[in-house]
Design a protein that fits this description.
Blueprint lengths: L13 H12 L7 E4 L9 H16 L3 E6 L9 H14 L7 E3 L4 H13 L3 E4 L3 H7 L17 H13 L8 E4 L14 E5 L13 E3 L1 H11 L4 E5 L6 H10 L7 E5 L11 H9 L14 H7 L3 H11 L10 H15 L2 E2 L1 E2 L2 E6 L8 E6 L9 E6 L2 E5 L19 E4 L4 E9 L6 E9 L16 E2 L2 E2 L4 E8 L25 E9 L11 E4 L3 E5 L8 E7 L5 H4 L1
Parallel strand pairs: 1-2, 2-3, 8-9, 10-23, 12-18, 16-19, 21-25
Antiparallel strand pairs: 4-5, 5-6, 6-7, 11-22, 12-15, 13-14, 15-20, 16-17, 17-18, 21-22, 23-24, 24-25
């Protein structure tokens, strides 16, 4: 069940057309049941979000159900940390499975009995070939495989060996259980695939009860059937596994036969989607954990300030097809901007400050100016901004010798301070040693309070600012693309890590924000006017506020590349 507030109709796609036809013909008693079945061996990323939105969205729109089921069949790579994170991320994204949280380990005894059933029907056998031998016997895409010398074992012998595998008599890798199908099949997945292997590893739920574990292809289809899933939706790499999915359900005479449907996975440029490679980055400390805002993980995107509604919108915009493609990172960021523009209050911050003394403003005086939290949403109210003799502006908003078309502050040229007054610069103070500008001397026009001149004169530039004494110091982290090239995975014979962007994170420790943001909480989001959208980081404390830049106000990446 979807617990989001999205109301706009979802565009049709080939999967929905299949479901529409199934409902029209009365298939599955006109019921729709999907599932999201992650492996708890890492954190979810934006690619998983596409599957989550698809499966839970179908359940929502067809008054069906969607289960969350953990495929916990490989305890060597699974951790409770990953399970907790997945549960939290799916909820954060806006979806709920009600009371339908399942684990493949719920079915371990049933799966074992299904394997016994295959052995008794002479459809499975215990094989003693080594992993390398099994691979060499499998054949190629153009040559058939070779039958294992253990394929002719009797059912009685196979049942005995399989029971002894369960009892822990054999070492890892010494024996496996294989389905007996067809070693000459043009589909390599049907050439006697392994369905059980020995793993003497502690399981997070079953402890040391089991030392044999089912393979994904075996456990997945049976779990789907036991849960009465009607449409088993997965990505295209499982298309060649569909015959095995159907074969197992048919041979086992399962009570329900779900329909497996494949769609193209999400590929996003300037990042990677492989959990193995993401784990390498985390374990190699090339990023700062799974929730590093540069990563495409949902916890990373959340920490960076991406709202879940924007991710859902992105997944809807890219659509569902069978055509593999690479989506522009800019589209995801556009969805984020569209959502944040609606919901975020405005504030002012100065990231690279330069000091201004307004010489004709009274000393020891602070004037309070009123500014709305949102220009198009009066319900958000307003806040007070202090104005004083000494202020900060951005260094880039002043040029001593400006080029043509520069409408910000320059000597002798008026500029508007946002929500405040017109000011004019008449003196530039420089460091006598290095010549760097350290201070500007300006005057203000007290008749222009609010940013308008009573005599009707106009200025072309408006800049943001902060009263120096009242401003709050903060650290701001600016994030960029994780990699310097669009598709780091596509470079053959080159380590993808060599394309990591050295400028993907820039920490600015000496920034300033307006005092209205003194009491913020992690994940609070703001638009810093003229600078972009920012989110309060979890590292923030009362003594030190930290903001992450979520996205800029517009896509500057295309212009710079």
């Amino acid at each position: 069940m979807n617990i989001t507030e999205d109301k706009k109709p979802t565009p049709s796609n080939f999967i929905r057309r299949i479901i529409d036809e199934d409902l029209r013909t009365g298939k599955n008693n006109k019921k729709v049941a999907t599932r999201f079945p992650p492996e708890p061996n890492g954190y979810l990323h934006i690619g998983h979000a596409k599957s989550i939105c698809l499966n839970f969205g179908i359940a929502r729109d067809y008054n069906g159900t969607c289960n969350l089921r953990f495929d916990d069949t490989n305890p060597a790579k699974e951790e409770i940390e990953y399970i907790d994170s997945i549960i939290d991320s799916v909820h954060w994204l806006g979806f709920d499975w009600e009371n339908r949280l399942y684990y493949a380990s719920d079915y371990f005894e049933k799966l074992y009995q299904c394997a016994v059933q295959l052995i008794e029907a002479d459809k499975a056998y215990v094989c003693d070939l080594t992993p390398d031998e099994i691979r060499s016997y499998r054949g190629t895409l153009t040559e058939p495989g070779k039958e294992s010398p253990y394929r002719s074992r009797t059912n009685i012998e196979n049942l005995d060996l399989f029971a002894r595998m369960r009892a822990g008599e054999f070492t890892e890798g010494s024996r496996v259980l294989r389905a007996k199908i067809d070693m000459a099949s043009p589909n390599i997945n049907m050439r006697d695939p392994i369905i059980y292997r020995i793993r003497k590893v502690h399981h997070h739920r079953t402890g040391d009860k089991w030392c044999i574990y089912p393979m994904y292809d075996f456990a997945h289809c049976i779990s789907d059937s036991l849960e009465a899933i009607t449409h088993s939706i997965c990505t295209l790499e499982f298309e060649d596994h569909r015959p095995l999915y159907d074969w197992l359900i048919d041979e086992l005479k399962m009570p329900n036969h779900p329909q497996q449907i494949e769609f193209a996975r999400l590929n996003l440029n300037y990042t990677i989607m492989s959990k193995r490679k993401l784990l390498e980055l985390v374990q190699g400390k090339l990023v700062n954990g799974w929730d590093d805002p540069r990563l495409p993980t949902l916890v990373g995107l959340r920490r960076r300030g991406f709202p879940p509604a924007a991710i859902r919108d992105f997944c809807e915009r890219i659509g569902i097809t069978k055509q593999e493609s690479v989506v522009e990172m800019g589209l995801l960021e556009e969805c984020v901007r569209d959502e944040l523009n609606k919901i975020t209050p405005r504030a002012m911050a100065v990231l690279n400050p330069i000091r201004i003394v307004i010489e004709n403003f009274p000393e020891n005086t602070v004037e309070e100016l009123d500014a709305p939290w949102h220009p198009n949403n009066p319900d958000m109210g307003s806040r007070k901004i202090p104005f004083a003799r000494i202020i900060y502006i951005e260094k880039e908003d002043f040029m001593e010798i400006p080029p043509k078309g520069f409408f910000r502050l320059t000597p002798g040229q008026e500029v508007r301070l946002r929500y405040a007054y017109f000011i004019k610069c008449h003196n530039v103070i420089k460091d006598p040693i290095n010549g760097e500008i350290i201070e500007l001397r300006c005057t203000y026009d007290p008749e222009t309070r609010g940013g308008n001149a009573p005599d009707g004169r106009k200025v072309k530039g408006t800049i943001h600012w902060l009263a120096a004494e009242q401003a709050i110091k903060a650290e701001v982290r600016l994030y960029d693309r994780l990699f310097t090239i669009a598709n780091p995975d596509a470079q053959k014979d080159v380590d993808y890590k060599s394309f990591l962007n050295p400028d993907s994170l820039k920490a600015l420790p000496d920034c300033f924000i307006e005092p209205s943001l003194a009491k913020v909480n992690p994940e609070d989001k703001y638009q810093f006017e003229r600078l972009g959208y920012f989110c309060v980081d979890q590292d923030s404390t009362t003594a030190k506020l930290v903001f992450n830049r979520t996205v800029t106000l517009k896509d500057t990446w295309k212009k710079s590349n």
